[in-house]
Amino acid sequence: MATTKIYIVYYSLHKHVEIMAREIQRGASAVEGVEATLWMVPETLSDVILQKMKAPSKPEDVPEIKPEQLLEADGFLFGFPSRFGVMAAQCKAFFDATHELGATQALAGKPAGIFWSTGFFGGGQELTALTAITQLAHHGMIFVPLGYTFGSGMLEMNEVKGGSPYGAGTYAADGSRQPTELELQQAFYQGKYLAEIAKKLKN
What we know:
Low-confidence stretches: none
Number of helices: 6
Distance between the termini: 8 Å
Oligomer: single chain
Largest sheet: 7 strands, mixed
Helix content: 25-40%
Shape: globular
């Protein structure tokens, strides 16, 4: 049986989305016959701006992706922080650069999910997901939401928890909050869930 390749493509300024992405990779890798790879979209901010924003250094073990490399994958999980209810400009710039793939519909029929980080409750936990779906639709990709398949974790009311039926999510607050155990569990689940669906579609 051929290997199913899942690409986890993300942008992370202060590591919150990166932490989620690594957990998603672990979930996808837990599916037999699946190879899950982490990729970063290119940074658009200068080193001077990043320094002023006190952004940590980028991970050395995650390469930058080029649009044409998306062709290699059987399924995707795209992750990003929210900016005013939409994906960060770095991710939008990357999607804008995929116009040639869109023109040929080279990614049509491939399953894709999304995950994200927002600042606070009004920061776009659902709106960021909704506005991201347009990128997938124009490519003809198959959006794979979680629904309520994560079970009781979706209904948790005793603690602050990001995520929704659209995918896994976390809250960064002022930057000091880190993804919780429950949020990471949902991220792991999403990676596994998307990988299983991509494997079925491939085979």
